Structure formats: C-alpha cells, structure tokens
Amino acid sequence: xxLNRLYFKKTNGYLVAQSYxxxxxxxxxTVEDDFAHLAPLMGLTLNDVYMINLSEGEYEQDLxxxxxxxxxxxxxxxxxxxxxxNAPDPEHPVFEKSLxxxxxxxxxxxxxxxxxxxxxxDRADFIEDVIAEMAQQVYR
Length: 140
Known about the structure:
The chain is 38% helix and 24% strand. It is of the alpha+beta class. It has two domains: 2-97, no CATH class; 99-140.
C-alpha cells in the first residue's frame, strides 16, 4: 500500500501538511482522517486547501531535499525551494521546478543534442566524401 497526499493552502500555495503511508498498512487513512489527526489541518476544511495525490516515487527525492514546497497557483504545479550554500536567504526562498523534472528535461535535451551531433557528423562525412570525389575528378 502507498499513499502520499500533499495539502496546500489556497491563499498562498504553501504546503500545510503531508499524509504519507508506505508498506504493510492495514487501513489507508481517508481525507477526513487526515483533517482529524494531522495538527496543521485541524481547524481547516477541504475548501481551505488544494490536495494532490502523488504516485509512488513521484517527487520522492525532491520531497526529501527541498527546504520549502509550494503549489504554484498560476500553473497548479508543485515547486520546490532548495538550500543554496552559496546564497543562503531563508527569508526569500526561490521556488523552481523539481530537480527530478529538471533532470528529465536535461536527459531529453541531451538525447536530442546527441542525435543532432550524429546528424552533423554524418553530414560532414558526406561533404568530405563529395569533396574527395570532386578532387579525384579534377586531378584525372
């Protein structure tokens, strides 16, 4: 069994609570259970928050490493703020896409660049062959 629910405040998008269960759990808590037993949700209603259910492994590393998590209210996508040892400013966190999304984008870009590089190399080889053939015709 797996459950990972994130609750974000509708007013600012910041993470209010997380309901997480993994492994041999007899009962998966309901949303009502979360509101009754998670202290940050007590006193709130489902109308006060956005709830997101994550699939197993989704944002797993990001959730461990991020300093802050929020829901971008314009795009409704989860964003993360990571600790920057070169510019620590906990008062003004910078939110961005998750590192896992960035890695996926970079992998896709790398695959595309490798294909483009191979195509350019093939083209250069072709041009070199054409020049060599033309040189043979000229010097006959």
